[in-house]
């Protein structure tokens, strides 16, 4: 399993008049956490796009247990529980606040596809080689 | 069953560099569709908040089948398949583009809670009375 | 002068915990109003991009006089006071709420540039021909 | 003069189909930079709201010189050039990318007002006392 932690400070823009983070903004937090997860492997999502591979999201599931508030310093734990065997990759997320309360659960499924044609493809070798050391 | 249709024009701000609507923006589309669904019943979500009842989202599931593009005039079909029996309400959504292609499936679960205390409550009577005519 | 009016309903996502529309969201409202202004001329911004011309914003000025609130049905008046003589176009905006109170003033300056090269260019002839009838 | 630097990584969500950061998102960057600027003084904007003082934006001016791109690590320089004498405070911003190119200029004017009544007020003493050491 490959696990990373990413910290995100809640912006005022991300709150709504219920005084909490708007439910739609967690998708951005998950995106940032995925990108930082990949960066921790010495690779970047940006480099993947430059190699001609993009990762559209095909499915997302979120459970909102407790609200996040303005200026909270969130800790997003990101789990890659299985090494992708084909064009599909699954990230799971747990969002905690600074009191270590679990706020949100997320699961995001993405495909590796070729830029332009949207043809399904595999995870780039440069990423797989570093990632598989976590799946002995 | 209670079904409504809401049309939303895709904004430039809602696209990303993949030339499609960013996956996180569908939560906003579902929010607008829910609000218009309630408005069609002669009630508004704003009035509900003024009555002291807010509706936080507790769960969301989304499947992204095909991308939406800038300036697309989306049709969001919103389904309320069951009359809420307690504090829980489930909206289902189908997003179509102007070529009537199904782009996205969404399911959003919300609670009725009292403003301030966040105590679970029931759907306001003013809304229930008009809604139950759709569930004979 | 060319003037149009565009109506936008405030989304919950666009509010913040000050119970008003977040100041950063007016840029989106101005974008929608510009796009609808061009659509009223029988042309679309999308078609302009397909012709190889994009319109990056180079300057924006905004004055926030009164707040907009959730569910307000805003009326955005968009003014094109001069026919562009070169690569530069200036849109001015006034945002009113349903009580006809003036909430916000905006001025957005954009360039016509060629997609890819970012070379300055002129307004496409298809747009100029319909627009100049408003500047006799 | 009081100057701070804040680093922000560009999110995918913040790009648009022009492959650059959408012009409306700079308002969020300025907000984060203001908040971090105040935090550097040992105070937080959140604490100010808890003291009953909020800071609505009344005016914003932005010049977009060069585009920011996905994954850029922006450096937002924030300048407070004058100690506020009344209810008005002016922040100026310069946004640089990692190549130290100046991308954007911003000026944001805010008021100190009492929460609830929106009555104009002064900068809280707790903030003024630390800030005035920068204006000898």
Summary, kept brief:
Four copies of one chain form a homotetramer. Chain A has 136 residues and is of the alpha+beta class.
Task: State the main characteristics.
20% helix, 136 residues, 3 helices, five-stranded antiparallel β-sheet, 7 strands, alpha+beta, homotetramer, two-stranded antiparallel sheet
Regarding quaternary structure, how should these chains be classified?
homotetramer
Main interface by residue count: A-B, 22 and 22 residues
Number of strands of chain A: 7
Low-confidence spans of chain A: pLDDT under 50, at least 5 residues? Answer: none
Average residue pLDDT of chain A: 97
Q: Approximately how much beta-strand content do the residues of chain A carry?
A: 25-35%
Rg of chain A: 16 Å
What does this structure look like?
Four copies of one chain form a homotetramer. By secondary structure, chain A is of the alpha+beta class. Chain A has a single domain (2-134), classed as Thiol Ester Dehydrase, Chain A. The first copy, chain A, contains three helices and seven strands; from the N terminus they run βααββββββα. Chain A has helices at 26-39, 45-50, 125-131, and strands at 2-9, 53-54, 57-64, 73-80, 88-96, 102-111, 113-114. Chain A has a five-stranded antiparallel beta sheet, with helices on one face. The longest helix of chain A has 14 residues, at 26-39. The radius of gyration of chain A is 16 Å and the shape is globular. Chains A and B meet through α1 and β3 of A and α1 and β3 of B. β3 of chain A pairs antiparallel with β3 (57-64) of chain B.
SSE diagram, text form:
Four copies of one chain form a homotetramer.
Chain A: E1 2-9, H1 26-39, H2 45-50, E2 53-54, E3 57-64, E4 73-80, E5 88-96, E6 102-111, E7 113-114, H3 125-131
Antiparallel strand pairs in A: 1-4, 2-7, 3-6, 4-5, 5-6
């Amino acid at each position: 399993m490959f696990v990373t932690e990413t910290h995100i400070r809640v912006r005022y823009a991300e709150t709504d008049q219920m005084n909490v983070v708007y439910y739609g903004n967690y998708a951005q937090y998950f995106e940032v956490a995925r990108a930082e997860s990949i960066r921790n492997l010495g690779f970047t999502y940006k480099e993947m796009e430059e190699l001609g591979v993009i990762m559209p999201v095909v499915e997302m599931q979120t459970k909102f247990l407790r609200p996040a508030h303005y200026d909270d310093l969130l800790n997003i734990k990101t789990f890659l529980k299985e090494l992708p065997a084909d064009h599909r990759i699954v990230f799971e997320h747990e969002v905690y606040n600074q009191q270590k309360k679990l706020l949100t659960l997320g699961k995001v499924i993405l495909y590796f596809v070729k830029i332009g044609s949207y043809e399904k493809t595999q995870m780039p070798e440069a990423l797989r080689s570093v990632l598989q050391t976590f799946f002995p």
